[in-house]
Every structure is written in structure tokens, then in C-alpha cells.
Design a protein that fits this description.
Layout: E1 2-10, H1 17-28, E2 41-47, H2 53-67, E3 73-80, H3 84-90
Antiparallel strand pairs: 1-2, 1-3
Catalytic activity: N(2)-formyl-N(1)-(5-phospho-beta-D-ribosyl)glycinamide + L-glutamine + ATP + H2O = 2-formamido-N(1)-(5-O-phospho-beta-D-ribosyl)acetamidine + L-glutamate + ADP + phosphate + H(+)
Keywords: ATP-binding, Cytoplasm, Ligase, Nucleotide-binding, Purine biosynthesis
Family: Belongs to the PurS family.
Length: 93
């Protein structure tokens, strides 16, 4: 089973009030040196069967039509080598 990840972020020209709130909170919590924060979404899709170029293209279409709002968000699709469950199992969690 393969995992395909879709990362969705607001486009650079779109205001990000959640990111600004995090940026404002960091110094109050004692963290310094952060100059900007953008908050987005991450979708992890477990895919059964072989991960072909056609399957990755279908995930890209899912991202464009459902997982993101292309008017105000950009997205990236990438394949993870190991699922989180596999990593946790190999670390004995």
C-alpha cells in the first residue's frame, strides 16, 4: 500500500489570519527568530494496489477539485516512501 500526500497552502498573495495568529503567539511563548508563518492543510491518502502515474494523476485531480480551492490555494502532490504506520512499527511504537 502506498501513501500519497497532498499539501495545500494559501497562495502567497492571500492573507493568512491563522498563520498571523501563530506568528503573534510565538514570542509570547518565548520563541524568537520566526519572521513569518503560513498555515495549510495536509492530506494523506493510502492507495491500494500499484501506484502508477495514472493513480498519481487522479490524486492531483482530487486535490484540484476537492482538497483545495484553486482560487486561493496552491497544492503539491508527492509520494511518501513509507507510511506513518510503517515508520511507527519499525520504531517499536
Amino acid at each position: 500500500m502506498a501513501r500519497v500526500v497532498v499539501d495545500v497552502m494559501p497562495k502567497p498573495e492571500i492573507l493568512d489570519p491563522q498563520g498571523k495568529a501563530v506568528l503573534g503567539a510565538l514570542p509570547r511563548l518565548g520563541f524568537s527568530g520566526v519572521t513569518d508563518v503560513r498555515q495549510g492543510k495536509r492530506f494523506e491518502l493510502e492507495i491500494e494496489g500499484e501506484l502508477t502515474d495514472d493513480v498519481v494523476e487522479q490524486v492531483r485531480q482530487m486535490a484540484e477539485t476537492l482538497l483545495s480551492n484553486p482560487v486561493i490555494e496552491d497544492f503539491e502532490v508527492h509520494v511518501e516512501e513509507h507510511s506513518v504506520a510503517e515508520v511507527a512499527a519499525s520504531e517499536g511504537r
